[in-house]
Write a structure and sequence with these properties.
The protein is of the alpha/beta class. It is built from 13 helices and twelve strands.
Amino acid sequence: MGNKKEVTIYDLARELNISASTVSRALKAHHSIGKKTIKDVKDLADKLGYRPNGLAVSLRSSKTKVIGVVISLVNRPFVSSLISGVEEAASKAGYRVVIAQSHDSYKNEVESVQALFDSRVSGLVVSLAMETQQYDHFEKFLRQDIPVVFADRVAEEINCHRVIIDNFQAGFTATEHLIEQGCKRIAHFAGAQHRNIYKERMKGYLEALNKYNLPIDENLIMYFNSLSLEEGKKFSNQLLSLPNPPDGIFSANDTAAVSAIQCAKERGIKVPEQLAVIGFNNDPISEIVDPSLSTITHPAVDMGKIAARQVLKHMVHENIVESETIVLKTKLIVRASSLRKKH
């Protein structure tokens, strides 16, 4: 790892058999340089991971003591907890943190990752955008042996460290809890199924129904884009308008679960007597809503700390080839929204 050299314009010039000054002008798309040369230079620069910098020094001495963090939205309680975990571990080690939001857009994520690469971060902690299904934008980091650690929303297809929770077990536990409370028709608010966390939570839900011999009804599974309040209202109304509505809902996040409680109230449906609801993440809103929301805790701060430590560990221990997946435990928190049986 320590012997990775920074790619310079001289490397590009040598490879393309042109002068360094031509490369320099091509990178700035100078009018004196032909379109094909500009394209050739830029393609090679991207392939080799060239980063514009006046200092032609080795990567180690020119790198900043900064860890880049790419997340979906800062204003989500889970995300802000994750960031504070990263910051705590990074600052203990004398590193700063730079945060970029993707707003769940693939295009934004690609641009943010490139900007962090150009600003010479020492490593990257990433929780993927909901839209992202391609991962080429991380390749330049890996080629330069700059550690990339995925947290929560991870890429299975890329050889990196991951810090996750056991989403399957958590989805199973949440659904089993509703079954134990006497629910027979349990709906699921599912997140985007190409994201590991939502796919696994749904698998857990289906496994619990199977274990207790409850039928799987496709009409009760709602596929969300962003698990927002607005989407939650729409899908809750759809479910509660069915001739045979659900008597329980397991939502893959707390936000959509809260919208189900609000929607039930507006329709005069009693929660939890007629509709038991459980969410996911233990966001602050889950204690504020009435009735308070049962949920699954998410160790977001720990996840952030461990992700940052994995970045730092990679920088200290050279030539780590094996990628490690660290799985954290979750807990069921039972509140009023699902308690149909008073124990």
